[in-house]
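re: ur question from yesterday

yeah so i grabbed the chain u mentioned. its 502 aa long if i counted rite. heres the sequnce exactly as i have it in my notes:
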Amino acid sequence: MAALIVAVVGIILVTIWFFQSSRNKELVNKLPGPPALPLIGNAHQLSPSGADFYGQLLQFAETYKEEGMFRIWLGVVPVIALYKAELSEVILNSTKHIDKAFMYRFLHPWLGTGLLTSTGKKWHGRRKMLTPTFHFKILTDFVLVFNEQAQILKEKLRSKVGSKPFNIFPDITLCALDIICETAMGRNINAQSNSDSAYVSAVYKMSTILLKRMRSPWYWPSVLFNTFGSGNEHDKCLSILHSFTKKVILEKKQELSSRRETGAVSREEEEVVGRKKRLAFMDMLLHMSDDGAILSDDDIREEVDTFMFEGHDTTAAAMNWAVFLISSNTRIQQKLHEELDSVFGDSEEPATMENLKDLKYLESCIKEALRLYPSVPSFARTLTDDADIGGLVIPKHTSVVLLTSALHRDPLYFPDPEVFNPDRFLPENIKNRHPYSYVPFSAGMRNCIGQKFALLEEKVILSTIFRNFTVKTHQKREDLKPVGDLILRPEEGIFVTLRSRT
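ran it thru and got these structure tokens back, copy pasting raw so excuse formatting
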């Protein structure tokens, strides 16, 4: 049976390869890139190790740095990587090339076709509908959640003052998970005190499974993925993730119905989302749904799951990289302490929106950390028409990957690119920089809708850590081995020691 399946898939690949437009193959093979084999392309050269795979991509970028692009073949599917601002602008500034690449379809079982994965009219409609859910008043309410969870993290870290080096990555990540659960669903799963929860485990396992499938063409056909790959584990994780979200949606609908019956909420109040009560993202979607006429339960689930996916690991990774980089440089950490002391003094009060606006140097530290270690190391689009990029024609339907990790290291815009220097983001140093040389939250029409949310969360958590502790790293940059999964994270974590400042 297994041999028959392999044979059938082989015949399909040969057929696709044989009938594939010779023009398209000719155009793609004009692009710089490593030699490829028939049918399997470069897939055999790509390491299954996340850390090694990420290193390979950066090595390809270095090899073809003059061109600012390279192509690889995943089986019979060409993928073009771009990492020069002028080339990336062609895609990011386009109103046509906004479709996500075919690899994103592997996210559909989990996220459906929510804001991240949808296209066309659905994407435009959802983007317009969801943008108001991130307005200033709602973000101000979310800051209260950030502070509540930051205080729990602070007490956890206080118990580790003076201890031997420990991995701070899980502590920050679980804090981010509690924040996203409460802001997205209005539920606190207490991840900071219960890291063994089934939901927490399922989130991590699913991300790993999906990335492995994306870079393994032999697992693209569902029959092979389910027979020889991680199909069973994928489905178990999916069941846990969807069951949790569906359960919360049902409970929230019952709560809303009960409040309406008792007169605790009126239709008029619902029109001004969040004015009377701190609402989670799911609450706002339920208010918008018009009892299913505008958004069904499945529509709400896919947007909440998308918010969970996009807003959890991304911010956690960004904060961890920032902790490592700040604690690696005594001068920078001292300057940050001085800013925090000038804004907060001896107060132990939670950060306010006004406080956060004043934390200019911390913001520069976060942005510089995202330059060196962007949470999303790459994102991909499918061309909806032929595109002229750098004087070369890339044919319609080709997948184009924006390799942010390499883009952010262009010495033309970032001299000494491997140096952590927050002053790069001073106003006078930003004003003449190419607008597409730095895109940690993507750019153009499909930029990240939650980037203000993310930056506020990171400011609250990091200010809480550095207000209370002096942090010392026990690793060098080369020890970290970044893993280029869906989210960029260090292979072994971030090991630090803490000294109390209070």
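noticed a couple things. The chain is about 50% helix and 10% strand. also Confidence is low (pLDDT under 50) at residues 271-275.
anyway ttyl
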